[in-house]
Write a structure and sequence with these properties.
By secondary structure, this protein is α+β, with helices and mostly antiparallel strands. The protein contains four helices and seven strands; from the N terminus they run ααβββββββαα. It has helices spanning 2-13, 18-21, 105-110, 116-125, and strands at residues 22-31, 39-47, 59-65, 69-76, 79-86, 88-94, 97-101. A hairpin with a 7-residue loop joins strand 1 (22-31) and strand 2 (39-47). The protein is elongated and about 55 Å long. 13% of the residues are buried.
């Protein structure tokens, strides 16, 4: 029950659809040093270890993460909110050669009915 409540609250706070592809791995509160929003909240997200559909038929293995991308989100309860997003990459064997691949977020956007907020989130993480 507690986990269901936590999940429901997180879904209200984060852009719609984010938890389909990312896990929350941490939260950090801090001081912003600014007048209006004097506190900060950083939510750390890591992409789930789920190979993109287009590579499922190939031999693959996880190859770690890319550098985190910081995305400013809507303030919550007088706190500036930042999403720290770590995207995965995989080593995929294609035609006998190993190639590093990541999820194509444009494909995710095309196949998803999304809110403007989720579209903005995908646009930001696609700028890697």
């Amino acid at each position: 029950m507690k986990e269901d409540i936590n999940q429901s609250l997180l879904e209200l706070i984060l852009p719609e659809g984010v938890l389909d592809y990312f896990n929350i791995v941490g939260l950090e509160k801090g001081e912003s040093g600014k007048y209006v929003y004097d506190k900060t909240l950083t939510i750390y997200l890591e992409e789930k270890n789920k190979i993109p559909e287009e590579y499922k038929s190939h031999k693959y293995k996880s190859s770690g993460f890319m550098e985190p991308r910081l995305i400013n989100d809507y303030p919550i309860r007088n706190m500036l909110v930042t999403l720290s997003v770590k995207r995965r990459r995989w080593d995929v064997e294609i035609d006998g050669q190993t190639k590093k691949v990541t999820r194509d977020w444009r494909l995710v956007a095309q196949g998803t009915r999304m809110s403007a907020e989720y579209a903005a989130f995908l646009k930001e993480i696609s700028r890697f």
